[in-house]
Design goal:
Blueprint lengths: L1 E6 L2 H8 L5 H8 L4 H4 L5 H8 L7 E15 L4 E14 L4 E16 L4 E6 L12
Antiparallel strand pairs: 1-5, 2-3, 3-4, 4-5
Helix pairs in contact: 1-2
Amino acid sequence: MADLKILFSKEHYRSFEDGETNIAGFLSMVLPIRPSEVANPQNELANLLLSYHSDDGGAITVSRIEVENASYDARTKAGKIWFKYYLAYHYACSYSEKDYEKDDKVDFFVDENAGVVKLTFLDLNTRSTAEEF
């Protein structure tokens, strides 16, 4: 498994805690999913999502990431986030490009005291479509 820790501000958490935004809105605010962040080759979130497609062939980049949905248990501070993201495939030999929409579910935990959202990605070897049911 791979863990990714994302820092958030107390103001962002307060907007969620006060009911100004839901969990999906909170995650959309704090995760690096804005276009300029996704375009950064150092974006760990994009790179972890991209790792699920490393055997697809061609030069692949993540062109966009969205929080499609999220569920959260306030008692355990844990939940699941559904990402919708777009992969751009570039095939140099054939001068072609294709874009595909993908969906993946990731577990997360909110540590409000540390100001961290921890996303837990399954390893490529253990990830299975059976987990989607």
